[in-house]
């Protein structure tokens, strides 16, 4: 087998591929042999030039089809060309000045984005800090411990709070020791 699709033989690019190997397709050779030979030097030059141009422009035959004219009528093409001419018929100095103004505005916006991001960061920080409640614990208070590990496995019957503990010692920086 010569390929993944279990094909045992076939013709690819004018060559017959089979179990015995790669051979030139005889049918194609016969067609080439029956072509008329050029009778003059000019005919030979034209034949070579035609084949070279087909190698250089492989899609030339497709572009010569009448489908393009059917799809895009000449009136549409003329209208598009007129629109493009009107659109691009402008004063270069005026357009250059206009483009400079646009670039300056863009640079100003870019500079403002950094300032705006700092303002946004400060506002969100204030909002989050306002939601944090300061808790004051005294020695002997009974507290519940919140288990953040159960967050992943939270079900209806599982609690995130672990049994009541007693505050044993309060450290000055806010940490407490439970017993």
From TrEMBL:
Keywords, ordered alphabetically: Nucleotidyltransferase, RNA-directed DNA polymerase, Transferase
Keyword Ribonucleoprotein: no
Single GO term (MF): RNA-directed DNA polymerase activity
Transmembrane segments: none
Top-rank taxon, per record: Eukaryota
SUPFAM superfamilies: DNA/RNA polymerases
Protein name according to UniProt: Reverse transcriptase domain-containing protein
Species: Tanacetum cinerariifolium
């Amino acid at each position: 087998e010569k390929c993944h699709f279990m094909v045992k033989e076939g013709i690819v690019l004018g060559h017959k591929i089979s179990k015995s190997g790669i051979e030139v397709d005889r049918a194609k050779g016969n067609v080439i042999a029956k072509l008329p030979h050029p009778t003059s030097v000019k005919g030979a030059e034209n034949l070579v030039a035609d084949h070279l141009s087909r190698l250089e422009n492989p899609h030339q035959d497709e572009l010569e089809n009448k489908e393009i004219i059917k799809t895009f009528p000449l009136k549409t093409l003329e209208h598009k060309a007129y629109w493009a001419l009107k659109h691009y018929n402008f004063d270069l100095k005026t357009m250059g000045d206009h483009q400079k103004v646009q670039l300056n505005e863009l640079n100003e916006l870019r500079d403002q984005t950094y300032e705006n991001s700092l303002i946004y960061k400060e506002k969100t920080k204030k909002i989050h800090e306002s939601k944090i409640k300061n808790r004051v614990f005294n020695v002997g208070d009974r507290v519940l411990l919140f288990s953040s590990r159960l967050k992943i496995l939270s079900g209806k019957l599982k609690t995130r709070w672990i049994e009541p503990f007693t505050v044993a010692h309060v450290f000055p920086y806010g940490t407490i020791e439970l017993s």
